[in-house]
Design goal:
Blueprint (H helix, E strand, L loop, with lengths): L8 H56 L3 H66 L1
Length: 134
């Protein structure tokens, strides 16, 4: 390294940190797609299991001649709990959105705080250097 090029430890760390962060940022869309695909397949498998169950048990239950009122009551009962489950999914989704917004806001506040502190630190170092040079 030549003496004409002035480089600091902070420059080196900042450069390498930026490289790693950029690489991670480039991976975000791919990672979201991978997890999205896995999650969709997981949900499809669960849905498919119940479809297979229906086919295998239909003949069995058809032979039992179950009262239609009982089946309507079972349907009403399960619809009620399905509604609760869907409501909880929506509430959790809203919570995640709120939580993410809160965390992002906190990170931005912290970033502003760090900038303020670094400005103060730089001024202190500059004053120290002035006193040191006297």
């Amino acid at each position: 390294m030549s003496t004409n090029n002035s480089i600091s430890v902070c420059d080196i760390f900042k450069d390498n940190t930026s490289k790693v962060i950029k690489k991670l940022e480039m991976q975000i869309p791919s990672h979201f797609q991978i997890y999205s695909d896995m999650y969709k397949e997981y949900l499809h498998v669960i849905d498919d299991i119940f479809g297979t169950c229906i086919l295998s048990e239909k003949e069995f239950f058809d032979k039992m001649k179950i009262d239609k009122n009982l089946m309507k009551n079972i349907e009403t009962f399960t619809n009620y709990f399905t509604g609760i489950g869907i409501n909880q999914i929506e509430n959790y989704d809203n919570y995640l959105k709120w939580y993410a917004q809160m965390r992002i806001s906190g990170m931005k506040s912290y970033d502003q705080f760090v900038h303020t502190m670094m400005n103060s630190y730089s001024k202190t170092l500059a004053n120290f250097m002035i006193d040191f040079e006297k």
